[in-house]
Design goal:
mainly alpha; 3 helices; 56% helix
Length: 93
């Protein structure tokens, strides 16, 4: 599987919608030096998420994706934390 971090069918508009609908961020490191990612699921606007999910379904059909675009973008966020943030922290320690 190609890296979704480097490639993907996402435009800036989809990215901004996802990040505003699914609030998450990295807040420092734990005692072992791993990044702490906080996802604030209680702050999700369900109507906005429903609209984003529908846009993700349209993206899935348009780009021939195996999964909804929202799921793939979430995996992209996880890959970013793993490959970029954790790598930078490993170098820093």
């Amino acid at each position: 599987m190609d890296s979704v971090l480097l490639r993907g069918p996402f435009n800036v508009d989809f990215r901004e919608k996802y990040l505003s609908t699914m609030p998450m961020s990295v807040h420092g490191l734990d005692k072992q030096g791993h990044p702490v990612m906080i996802a604030r699921y209680g702050s999700v606007d369900l109507q906005a998420f429903r609209a984003l999910w529908e846009e993700g379904e349209a993206l899935q059909k348009r780009a021939g994706l195996a999964v909804n675009g929202c799921v793939l973008f979430h995996l992209r966020a996880m890959e970013y934390v793993t490959k970029i943030v954790m790598a930078e922290e490993s170098k820093r320690q």
